[in-house]
Amino acid sequence: MDGHDAALRLDGGRPATAQRPSSVVGRRSLWLLPLAFLALFYFYPLVAILRQALMPAGTPDLEGLRKLVSTPVYARTLGFTVYQATLSTLVTVILGLPGAYVFARYDFPGKALLRALTTVPFVLPTLVVATAFTALVGPRGVLNQALVNLLGLEAPPIRLMNTLTLIVIAHVFYNYTLILRIVGNFWANLDPRIEEAARVLGAGRWRAFWHVTLPLLMPAVLAAALLVFIFDFTSFGVVLILGGPRFATLEVEIYRQTVDLFNLPLAAALALVQILFTFALMALYTRLQARLAVPLELRPQRLTQRRPVTWRARLFVTANLALMIALLLLPLAALVARSFSTSAGLGIAYYRELFINRTGSVFFVPPIEAMRNSLLVAGATVGLALILGLLAADMLARPGRLSAWLDPVFLLPLGTSAVTLGFGYILALDEPPLNLRASPWLLPLAHTLVALPFVVRSLLPVLRGIQPHLREAAAVLGASPWRVWREVDLPITSRAVLVGAVFAFTVSLGEFGATALIVRPQFPTMPVAIYRFLGQPGELNYGQALAMSALLSLVTGVGILVIERARYGGMGEF
Amino acid sequence: MNAYPLRNILFVLLIVALAISACGPAAAVPTATPTAPPATPTQAPPRKLVLMSHDSFNASEEVIAEFEQANNAKVEFLKAGDAGKALNQAILSKNNPLADVFFGVDNTFFSRAIDADIFEAYQPKGLENITDTFKLDPRFRLTPIDWGDVCLNYDKRYFEQKGLQPPTTLEDLVKPEYKGLLVVENPATSSPGLAFLLTTVAHFGPDKYLDFWKALRENDVTITEGWEDAYYGQFSGGSGSQGDKPIVVSYATSPPAEVYFSEGKLTEPPTAAVIGDDTCFRQIEFAGILKGTKNRDLAEKFMDFLISTRFQEDVPLQMFVFPVNREARLPEVFVKFAQIAPKPAQLSPEEIGANRDKWIEAWTDTMLH
């Protein structure tokens, strides 16, 4: 494996003429930053809550574990959790791959806008998504009413509410963008001439895909699928609200035991099972990934994309876009439409109401302020996640035993129950200088914990795909390690950095995983405002929740477009 | 440059966003009292009092400002999720409390709070105005602040159109004419859901209530995880509701809220509450001073304030519950449309504390597995 050797050589700083040992040491000590971050904001609070739950008196109390093993319900819950996550992931990947191909290989008008819109679902609170789905396929939804009228039926024919099918559809709705972006981005840099060579040598379209393209894509597909799986595996809101009480994932059960029954030992035992399962899965993935990664001749995207000209290409592109519109944009459109349809007809009454503090409440949230707070937190999250993510990816991209162990560790926060970690913060971060339990600073920190895996997953397949001889050449020509990174790694990964930034931004705007944290109502963000409105009956409250959700979608869409327009001035672009 | 109009627009938007965020930190944590005059130089800086509560806590800006001015204080709020989560977090942080006062322990969580020993005893001024039945803690570690009835709500139009009588008793719900009409919340995850489960325990007894639930299951009851999904997603009666079930477990004060939040469009609520004997559960909410507070004197003042007429008259329209203070006048929309159950179901906090987990587990086994 000369690729590995070359990387190690560069890393060790042995032969190159211009490498100063101090800069190598400097770079390595920077790796400590992401590790310290994880230690402080993940492992420390996690250990605190597990200790409190499992050894309240200093000695291990295994009652929780015993109950876990002796009650068959929990084995069933684990079974269902794995089953629905596997099913959802498969469907997401199968539907997402053709879409990724369309975005990777074709150029068409409105592409950037459509890509931004496919990511908007990511930020929407489940309660709001449930509203959109109900408006579409609920018993009194658009589709059912149309069918009832059209076919003269007595009862609504589509009965999706509270079914496994709806859980899967919602998971695809949320996670489609992960496949589209992570695989699509990697695919766009893949040299099309490799597949063309296979075609010239007589392989059919499918054979060339199966035997040439797919194997090369595998690192990105696996990385994206893994993220999708973990999301579905720890699914909370979707299963709780769209699935209804008959379905429960481990995450739902952990929440129930922690919050409603206050049975911390059992909750901790369940959380441990969830973490161990995630870790095992990711360790397996890391092994696979190491075997699959091949250094590639990556090409700038402008050289790999074309307009769909043949009727075949047009049909393929159109079919995929139609799917995206039906699956992702219709629910969004339904949401926006409902935010404008008041009981008095179409109008902006709900939006106007957002600006009025009718009840004189001390917790009134002016929408501009909520937007600003959300953007502040999201900006901080993007900055923090990119810095830590670039350092972590730089470290993990070097093959070796250490990175094989650390790689899964960086994904653990995603596989950890949010409420467990939230309670861990209460216990652990209670003394100065870390008394952050109720600080607004905890928000970007907690969001970064969730955003980091996305940044790392977006970067790693590309970083590992860089031909080592590029770095070697730069080093031989006298570039310092820092300069090699800036001139070789950064330009080639620039798109992947943007993908990571987009996910960090959306994770933060949607407050993913931070619902378990204590909220300072005087520093309200948009999701907090939405939940406040949903908590009370009455048309105006409901309407304002929808209007605020539509604004959140808008801010997200515009924010993504802005991020994607960012460029590395003067550097080569991939 | 003009080749990239979109880029230019986005650039402008980015600048705007940055400009907005640049007015940052100073405005980032706005004061709760923009109406309060700035402290004069001779005056000591206001002391901070932290109130921790569940997400549903609400109050008027000017009412809080009055307290702040009278006591040279600054009230900070922490919201910690639903009632259960907020209380659990207060318990977990008892060695190093997050706040001075905690608001929002109801009678279903009462014994958990008392057993965890996180409150300091204090008898606030004005207790004589509170009906004795609300005073559940003789040592006043917890003081009652508000109360409300969890009752069945129904869609008035549905029953008029079908020419059907709305249900008046729990037994009605298992009759064939009400098949498939009811939506309830999961008692394990929802506070009105738990209240309704307790109603059935109180009415049918701890040995028989599960039989009633089995019959409900036969009669196609719908179960949701939370009130939001039940009321907006499954119920047909509320404005904005999208469901097709005409009966839901909600609050007796939901009908006035429907009128109040209709922006004057409704003069009559589209829904009504069923307040027959033994069909409602009375939730009482308490507040208390957290052990370990460094502002005991100010916390005492705040407790006095919480049961004062000024705060109590603010309670109905901010939280849609009733004040415990008999002297507090009710707003018109409450007088007109809020119903009060004459004889709600009765269960003591001790009974609830000792059995709630058991009842919930049994319910879960019966209804969901």
Task: Summarize it.
The complex is a heterodimer of chains A (574) and B (369). Chain A has 574 residues and is mainly α.
Sheet having the most strands of chain B: 11 strands, mixed
Corresponding CATH superfamily of chain A: MetI-like
* C-alpha end-to-end distance of chain B: 64 Å
Question: Main sheet of chain A: which strands, in order across?
Answer: 1-2
Principal-axis shape of chain A: globular
The most extensive contact between chains is: A-B, 79 and 80 residues
* Proportion of residues in β-strands of chain B: 15-25%
Oligomer category: heterodimer
Radius of gyration of chain A: 25 Å
Count of DSSP strands of chain A: 2
The 3D shape of chain B can be described as globular
Main beta sheet of chain A: 2 strands, antiparallel
Helicity level of chain B: 25-40%
What's the CATH C level of the largest domain in chain B?
Alpha Beta
H/E element sequence of chain A: HHHHHHHHHHHHHHHEEHHHHHHHHH
Number of helices of chain A: 24
User: Regarding CATH, which class of chain A?
Assistant: Mainly Alpha
Helix/sheet category of chain A:
mainly alpha
Give the beta-strand count of chain B.
Answer: 11
